[in-house]
Structure formats: structure tokens, C-alpha cells
Design a protein that fits this description.
Distance between the termini: 13 Å
Largest sheet: none
Low-confidence stretches: none
Number of helices: 7
Helix content: over 70%
Mean pLDDT: 83
Length: 187
């Protein structure tokens, strides 16, 4: 088995936690469409900080086994810094939120498309679902980047859809990794 998948197996539950957080943030966006864009920006700033911390922890815990752990760590730190900046400068966050979310989702989705290829090589049956959800994330990110002047309700819907799809993707990936880990224990 490839080194990349083996290292992801040990801490699969961190991906599950991140997925649940993403779905929760997506839910918050859907149930508060009448709130101002500032409220959405504040929710996301805290979500960015927390997901950045979890991503950096995941990378550090896997640094001995994960060939590209530095990219996971750097993306986690970058995500945390963006979250802090969005919190400290709410007017900036309102103006640039769609760009932050769009690029963040684009890079994460491309990472998960790569993970789908690793899953396929490892024989996981869920690789196509991870690939499909990663591609859906790319589509959502491109839509966010294409028209950043969407109304607050449209932004809420697209960001909510993107976060829910990212959360589902993370959960599917985490249970795929857990399944591989369980099958390795049985052998």
C-alpha cells in the first residue's frame, strides 16, 4: 500500500470532525439567509480558524508517514491566518469573502481529487464518490470566483452548498480510510 494512504489511516477521525464542522457551517448559512453578509463572514472566520488548526494538527501527527505533509500543514496555517484576518477586519472580510472561500474550496477540492486517485489505487470502493464530490467542489468554487457580487442570499446558498458537499466529501473519505484500516487489521 502506498505511503500516502497508510499515513491517512491512523488519524481518519480528524477528517470526520472537519466534515461535520463543514456541514454544520453549511447548515448555519442555510438557516440564516436574512442575516447580513457580515454575520456570514464572522461564522466563516471562526470556521477557517478551526479547520486550519485541525489541518495543521493532522499534518504534524502524520509528518513521519505522509509524503506531502508539508502541503497539508502549510494549507492549515494559511487557512488559520485567513480566519484571523477575516475576524480582525470584518469590512475586508465582507468584501473578499467570496474570493477566500472560492480559492480555499478550489484548492481543497483539488486535494480531494488527488485523494480519490490514491483511494482507487488502494482498492477502495468509494474512490469515485470522493472524486465526484471533489469535482463538485471545484464547480462550486469556480462559480463563487466567477461572480463575487452575488446577493447575500445567493452567496449563502452557494457557500452553504459548497460547505455541505465538502463536509460530505470529508465524511466519505474518513469512512473510506477507516474501512481500509479495518480491513488491514483483519488481515
Amino acid at each position: 500500500m502506498e505511503k500516502t494512504i497508510e499515513s491517512k489511516l491512523k488519524y481518519w477521525y480528524l477528517l470526520l470532525i472537519f466534515g461535520l464542522i463543514s456541514i454544520f457551517l453549511g447548515y448555519l448559512v442555510f438557516v440564516t439567509p436574512e442575516k447580513t453578509f457580515l454575520v456570514i463572514a464572522i461564522f466563516f472566520s471562526y470556521g477557517f480558524m478551526l479547520s486550519g488548526i485541525l489541518e495543521a494538527i493532522y499534518a504534524v501527527l502524520n509528518k513521519d508517514n505522509l509524503a506531502n505533509w508539508g502541503w497539508y500543514f502549510a494549507l492549515g496555517i494559511l487557512t488559520f491566518i485567513v480566519g484571523v484576518q477575516l475576524t480582525v477586519h470584518p469590512n475586508l472580510s465582507m468584501m473578499l469573502l467570496t474570493f477566500y472561500i472560492g480559492f480555499w474550496l478550489l484548492f481543497r477540492s483539488m486535494m480531494y481529487i488527488s485523494s480519490a486517485i490514491d483511494l482507487k489505487k488502494s482498492g477502495s470502493g468509494n474512490w469515485f464518490l470522493v472524486l465526484l464530490l471533489g469535482a463538485l467542489g471545484v464547480l462550486f468554487s469556480l462559480l463563487l470566483l466567477w461572480n463575487p457580487v452575488l446577493t447575500s442570499i445567493a452567496v449563502s446558498v452557494w457557500i452553504g452548498c459548497a460547505l455541505v458537499s465538502l463536509g460530505i466529501l470529508q465524511i466519505v473519505l474518513s469512512f473510506s480510510l477507516k474501512g481500509i484500516k479495518s480491513s488491514l487489521k483483519d488481515n
